[in-house]
Predict the structure.
Amino acid sequence: MKTKILNSNQTDIAADILKSGGLVAIPTETVYGLAASAYKPQSIKNIFIAKGRPMDNPLIVHIADIKNIYEVVSEFHETAQKLAEKFWPGPLTMILPKNSKIPNEVCAGLSSVAVRFPSNKIAQEIILKTGEPLVAPSANLSGKPSPTKFEHVFEDLNSKIDAIVDGGDCTVGLESTVVSLLEEIPRILRPGAISADDIKNTVGCVKIDDAVFKKSKAGEKVLSPGMKYKHYSPKTPVTMIISSAEKYSEFINSKKNDNIIALCFNEDIQNINVPYVSYGGSDDVKTQAQKLFGALRDADKLQGTHIYAHYKDVNGFSVAVYNRLVRAAGFDIINL
Ligand code: TXA
Ligand code: MG
């Protein structure tokens, strides 16, 4: 299949492709999404095929006008309303009871649905012009780091989908916070730019699901099916190094003859003697989040035998960086 490359002024063409059942990768503020109409079961199946995504991993439905919320969910209670008022449009996904108009293929047979109102203007225009809510998982091949640049989408999905809209680099860089509102206390299933404190300060309470920090055991039932797969991984094995700057550079330099790659902070660069990719300042979590997925892809291209990624805990948003990096590393961590 020939994949059309569209620019951000060609949202009409993108919408026409989606209306006729096609797949279009679109920019959002978090990561690029692979969009299809949420009402077309065959298009939804095609998304799973194009990404190589396990069929039991449900999709997020995107809207661009709060008036359309009942096209997706069957209940929108007070907690959801408060969170929507505060954080929509933006990088927050809510899990709520599903509307029967949403086909089962979207939710992998669950009775709940994930819904998000993105802030990216190009995404909003495409959703509104299509006139239907759009499903959009991250526009990467399943298992690879999520795409935060047009080039990442092209690398993974060229010739597999109908079109890619080039909207430049994503500003947030990590996928949305996923919060389940099916129980009394909101439960974070996937951390993102909207932190646990942000949610607590808006609705009074919040829990973070164990799966955010821990590896799920084989066969274990998890609330967010996406959390059970190995994720975000380059081909090169990754180990996460939790340490001070000095211990990190000492460790890295001791392996300099082993063809290793450092995925490091800007401050580490001057102290290490191996090929590296940096992903921001050690205290600048916003930049770390924005650059992490691209840095994992770039580190892979250096073709080393092993990637050693430096991590430092900074604040609430660090949880999201930790969550992605630890999955990229398959939970292989060294504390120095
Ligand atoms: O920022 C984002 O959320 C991006 C952009 C494109 O909007 N999308 C994205 O989609 O990250 P995806 O498919 O890569 O991740 C969706 C996550 C998965 O972990 C999935 O298991 C979870 O949301 N999810 C979806 N529906 C769910 C449901 N009904 N219950 C629990 N988890 C659900
Ligand atoms: Mg994804």
